[in-house]
Write a structure and sequence with these properties.
11 helices; 243 residues; globular
């Protein structure tokens, strides 16, 4: 526990020093405020002026901004922390401490999952767009969101040599939003082809759960796919840094 506390304290210090990371930590809470304060007014304006109801699209809005965007933000933050520590030589210094590289990797995974799952579940009722009674049904989607954040962390640390390359890769993550957005409007089974994107499964599980449909097939498929990606990417990361 002392080692975990030391790593966590160092993470807080790193986030405070980096305005971009601090901004990304706070941005999800800003999104909650926007959804709670502005979206109902926009929906009323569209209904009154154009007879267009935005409410049927609330599940899509919640999935894009919270179920997907939140793990992306926290995954990028954790990934950038690892890139910073690699650039600073911290990972090399850890080799002479009691902390193994495997333990370090598992700590990072746990932080990414916890932040993503906690915020996703906490933020949904705070928006006022989802009933608190629907929260239990959103748990499977939140679990997949947490695993997606781990996938993003591992993609960053495996394929970005430094934070500059990490920023470029982060921009490429935008495609993860386009897949579920397209899938929402594809009503046939062809949408399953978009399952190659890890972001499809948390969103699809969330839509099914909110609609009261059977969500467990999407959760099971997403869980298998995410765990496979985590396993492969984690092995690659451990091979690069050593155990």
């Amino acid at each position: 526990m002392r080692i975990v506390a030391a790593l966590f304290t160092n993470d807080l210090r790193s986030v405070r020093r980096d305005p971009m990371l601090l901004y990304m930590i706070l941005l999800p809470w800003l999104m909650v405020l926007i959804l709670r304060l502005l979206l109902p007014g926009i929906a009323a304006w569209l209904k009154a002026g154009y007879d267009f109801s935005l409410e049927p699209f609330y599940p899509l809005v919640l999935s894009i901004f919270l179920v997907l965007q939140v793990p992306m933000m926290y995954g990028v933050v954790v990934g950038f922390l690892v890139l910073d520590e690699r650039d600073d030589g911290t990972l090399e210094a850890l080799r002479v401490t009691p902390v193994s590289m495997s333990a370090y990797a598992y700590y990072r995974i746990t932080v990414a999952v916890f932040l993503s799952v906690f915020f996703t579940l906490a933020s949904l009722p705070l928006t006022g767009l989802a009933s608190p009674s629907a929260l239990p049904s959103a748990v499977p989607a939140a679990i997949l969101s947490g695993l997606m954040s781990v996938v993003l962390v591992l993609l960053l640390v495996n394929f970005a040599g430094n934070k500059v390359e990490g920023l470029a890769l982060m921009k490429a993550f935008g495609i993860l939003m386009l897949g579920p957005l397209a899938a929402y409007f594809i009503k046939s089974d062809w949408q399953l082809l978009l399952g190659i994107l890890p972001s499809y499964w948390p969103a699809r599980t969330f839509w099914a759960a909110i609609a009261g449909e059977t969500a467990w097939p999407f959760f099971a498929a997403g869980l298998f796919y995410h765990l496979l990606l985590v396993f492969l990417l984690l092995r690659r990361f451990q091979a690069r840094i050593g155990n």
